[in-house]
Amino acid sequence: MSATTTSPESNQVSAPSPVELTPDDYRRSLLGSTLQSVLAVLVALFLGGLLIAATDETVRESAGYFFARPGDTFTAMWDAASSAYIAMFHGAVYNPDGSGLAGKLYPLTETLTVATPLILAGLGVALAFRTGLFNIGAQGQILIGATLAGYVGFAWQLPVGVHLLVVVVAGALGGAIWGGVVGLIKARTGAHEVILTIMLNYIAINLVSWLLTLSTFQREGSSNPISPPIAETAMFPKLLGDGFRLHWGFVVAVVATVAVAWLLNRSTIGFELRAVGANPRAARTAGISVTKGFVVVMLIAGMLAGLAGTAQIAGTEHSLTVGVAASFGFDAITVALLGRSKPWGTFFAGILYGAFRAGGVTMQTSTGTNIDIVLVVQSLIVLFVALPPLLKLKSRRKEVAA
Amino acid sequence: MKLELRDITKKFGGFTANQSVNLTVEPHQIHCLLGENGAGKSTLMNVLYGLYEPTSGSIEIDGEPVSFSGPGDAMAAGIGMVHQHFMLVPVFTVAENVALGHEATKGVGLDLNSTRRKIREISERYGFQVDPDAIVEDLPVGVQQRVEIIKALVRDAEVLILDEPTAVLTPKETDELLNIMRQLRENGTSIVFISHKLREVKAVSDVITVIRRGKVEGQVGPETSTDELAALMVGRDVSLTVDKEPAHAIGSALEVTDLTVVGENGVVLVDNVSFTVAPGEILAVAGVQGNGQTELTEALVGLADHVSGSITLEGQELAGRGVREVLSSGVGFVPEDRSTEGLVGPFTVSENLILDRYQDREFTAGPSLKLGAMRENAQQAVASYDIRTGSVDAPVATLSGGNQQKVVLARELSRPLKLFVASQPTRGVDVGSIEFIHKRIVAERDKGVPVIIVSTELDEVYALADRIAVFFHGRLMGIVPPDTPRETLGRLMAGETAEEVLPPAPWDDSQDHHQHEGTHTA
How far apart are CA B203 and CA A156, in angstroms? Predict the structure, then answer.
């Protein structure tokens, strides 16, 4: 019994040591993870506020006579930060100056519109995370999904209803192919998915640029890299009438969240994927095919990102450009991180990021605060989400060493 | 250098790993710490090496009290330690590993030449035959261990702690190591030798301190008989016997013919092995760790990649099939390491209990899992296997080692089996659970299932076996009856064949005594 990979002696001795987690610890850490995400957002907003204040004209002026009247500086700082955030809130949730209830709630619908692709792509990234894969490729998967959806949208003529359905399927298929390729290569050759997805992102963007130079994809009478608009029948209908941009893609996002939650927690496939993610060796020993898991999860993750691309094409953009995916594929990674790779966590994180995007524009136009501040806040959030586990690890090391 | 530990007590929460331990290591002495797994030997040495802070008590060097806040302090004071698991960087050369942490520099560059010179010096003095420029991962385990010893000697260690150094060695390498230890003693290095193997301890020690359950049981000389040492180490009160009837084994259910397993690097891990196991019989596979037993079990369940030969279970060929197919054809498998192979740590107890059964009709409705059935199954297993857990929804990583092992066992024994394979079924498990697990295994045998147990613990082998198969370097040295004396088994494990060792005419005298010992297990 003496020769071991894990020393039995130290096992027994360390069993009661504080490193072991009790069920209670787990409950607390689960509760803690939601709390941590919320705290990360609050701290990031606070630091963002300081940054807004530091770049504000009035603050700088009053700082000039700080020692004479320090109160002025603090008031100015508070004013700058609060007015920026209030403007952001007005742009993202509720605009008191809007005409009628519809006008007042218009910003909220904008937030949900922007959140739609973030949620869908974020779910794909989260699902891959749970299987132990770092899927950086949502951007490429969105692009290819959008390309296929766009092509079917403008090139094919189909009856109402059927056309949209085919567009959605095409978008999902495009993303699934782009993701599935990663899973397949990883399963076959063991290549690392981070490298694969990054490279496929480049291929996707250049592929789309090239496609847009072809006559099949180019808008008639235009030499710009933009496709013809998709047919009316291929568009997502507006959810709340023509006054709002919010479309049925959001409903797809909600359904996708429910589906992913079911898949992960209630289905046999999810059971396999989670086992592969948490302990691939034990999964293999239990007869679960790890490589098959990689292929399956990347197909589904790509499909979700492809749906995000479809939401862009059929919901808001209506024609294919190189910029159709914006930076949603990369934001999706942070959305999944903030959502702790949980389906509903990702859903709400997506809405929060949607709010940042929608509100950031209003903030810039009404208070002059640079919209880049939003990016800083977003990045800070990720930093703070990533930080606590690192701190925990460090203190645990100390404990062991002590 | 004279090293003294005075009244060392180390507690982990409510658990006392060491209680008022006194130990004196004189210069030019090989001092053995003898004790069972979990007796607290390693904890004591980690205290001495500055890895743990003692709850109370003190360490003195040459009469001066010292306190170590980390291994760095201990090394500076002249204490070196060779851990059970080597602390080497596999892709570095020997010289780079030895220099690591104490790099000599020349400007901004590394100066490895002085390290190389020192390694050659030490290597020549003790006949280590270690090339300073060899890459560590290419070296055999025995040589890697010498690199660890060199690491300590380069740092001028006067006291060398060897933690279970022979656990990973072949018998020949073990003898070489014992010689090295004697030479080191001649050159003035004192050695603390941690072991639970009586033969080695008697062969090399000057003083033997026996530790049991964290306390010093006694200090004796090497002339003490094996019996007395065993009694001190195990304690008369811990005498676990597995009550089992003789096996009613007829015919053969499992037939393994010419089984060969080749590793990734082309090394033959299991070498042309053939044997049979009858229904209702336990075949215990004995051998020093790393002699192909693990690979044998992996080949049996379809986890090994390059397998040739045939494995038939009730006439059905298993070789070449995937793990899932093998398991679902009625094979229960307890892997060697429950935390990396047997369980998914963050999964709940109830999820782990169906880890390889989630596709059974019992637990699935179309594509979805039946959570109710899972819960029911878990509650049943928790009750009948006495798994101590707060809830079936608790992550399995929160359970103690013994209870985790019961989860694995409950899962594998919960379906009708045609073959049961368990590797190290009680490794790192508390005494109470060992007894329980052994009873379950015997009960499975009594149902008429052929059982294969792989264990490096001879006590466990003797407790369970109806026949004993001994492995050495991937080869089956022979299959012997369960009353074969330890000494004979030892010779088989060291590479002698059954023909050379049996019949055991010269050992007739000792046979009765050994048989007696064999029925007791610690």
Answer: 87
B9 has a chain A CB within 8 A of its CB: no
Helix-strand-coil split of chain A, %, nearest 5? 75, 0, 25
Q: Which residues of B72-105 are buried (b: 16+ CB within 10 A; e: fewer)?
A: eebbebbbbbbbbebebeeeebbbbbbbeeeeee
State both tokens at B413.
Answer: 């024994």
Chain A partners of B424 at a C-beta cutoff of 8 Å? Answer: 1
A163 Cβ contact partners less than 8 Å away, ≥ 6 residues apart:
A152, A153, A156, A157, A231, A233, A234
| Confidence tier at B112 by pLDDT (50, 70, 90) | confident
Q: B303-357 pLDDT, tens per residue? A: 998 899 999 999 999 998 999 999 999 999 999 888 889 999 999 999 999 999 9
How many Cβ atoms from other residues are within 10 Å of residue B276's Cβ? 17
Distance from CA of B212 to the nearest CA of A (A): 13
Assembly ipTM: 0.81
Residue of B nearest to A262 (CA): B368
Q: Which two tokens stand for residue B83?
A: 């851990």
Would an 8 Å CB–CB cutoff place A241 in contact with chain B? no
Over its C-alpha atoms, chain A yields an Rg (Å, rounded) of: 24
> CA-CA distance, B171 to B359, in Å (whole number)?
45
Query: Would residue B78 be called left, alpha or beta, if left means φ above 0 and alpha means ψ between -120 and 50 degrees?
Result: left
B345/A23 Cβ within 8 A = no
Cα–Cα distance, B151 to B160 (Å, whole number): 11
Within the 289-308 window of chain A, which residues sit less than 8 Å (CB to CB) from chain B? 289
Long-range contacts of B359-367, Cβ-Cβ distance < 8 Å, separation of 24 or more: B359/A268, B360/B415, B364/A268, B367/A267, B367/A268, B367/A269
Nearest-Cα distance to chain A for B126, in Å, is 25
B24 three-state secondary structure: strand
Q: What is the model's pTM?
A: 0.77
End-to-end Cα spacing for chain B: 36
